[in-house]
Amino acid sequence: MTLFESMIVGHYRNKKQAQSNPTKWPQINILYTKIDDSVLELKQWYNYQGEDTPYRHYHLTLEHLDQHTVITHAHNLQTDEPGCNLQWGYFNGWWFGEVQDECVLRNTKVISNIEFDGKVYRSLDTGYYVDTGKFAWGKTPDEGMFQFDRLNNARNLNHTLT
Predict the structure, then answer these.
(1) What was the pLDDT predicted at 106?
(2) 28, 45 in Cβ contact below 8 A?
(3) What is the pLDDT, as a whole number, of residue 153?
(4) Quick check: 69 and 87 in contact, CB under 8 A?
(5) Residues 63-86: pLDDT tens digits?
């Protein structure tokens, strides 16, 4: 398993943040599972809906440009369409990712920023209407990032398809 994979694979939840202000921060789970060489599955779901009802479900194919640069090529399993590719860089113990080039999905320009260190995972995803530039979904940058903690849960961490 590569450094990127070993640091991102796992189950994350923003329980502390959600409990600190439930009207602002819904409780969300993120699960990264290794399913094949250089392929991860990503599932995100609201805690109250359960893992079987994810709002985001992708296969991510990893392209390692070098040991500190990775591109994740996303395929949306719910729509069977490509998703936004992210470019990741490793610096000072953290991986930092953002949308590679411009990504437009269903008439919204997607802006994503993610950072993780193997224990903490932070993300901010925002969509803006292409035609107006106005906020469409997610959180605005002034609201801050979602703050997730890695759970001590080893299930599905190294599952390989047979």
Answers:
(1) 87
(2) yes
(3) 59
(4) yes
(5) 999 999 999 999 999 999 999 999
Q: Do residues 158 and 1 make contact, with C-beta atoms less than 8 angstroms apart?
A: yes
Angstrom distance (rounded) from CA 30 to CA 85: 18
Residues whose CB falls within 8 Å of the CB of residue 104, separated by 6 or more in sequence, listed in order:
110, 130
Please give the pLDDT value at position 76. 96
In 3D space, the residue among 114, 109, 113, 115 whose CA is nearest the CA of residue 137 turns out to be 109
Low-confidence ranges of the chain (pLDDT < 70): 153-162
Provide the strand spans (E) within the chain.
Answer: 10-13, 28-36, 39-46, 56-66, 69-76, 81-82, 86-91, 94-99, 104-105, 108-116, 120-129, 135-138, 146-150
Buried b (16+ CB within 10 A) or exposed e, 88-123: bebeeeebbbebeeebeeeebbbbbbbbbeeeebbb
Tell me the Cα Rg of the chain. Answer: 15
d(CA 135, CA 81): 23
State in words which class domain 3-150 has. mainly beta
SS3 state at 141: helix
CB atoms within 10 A of CB 70: 24
| The pLDDT of residue 1 | 84
Query: What does pTM read for this prediction?
Result: 0.90
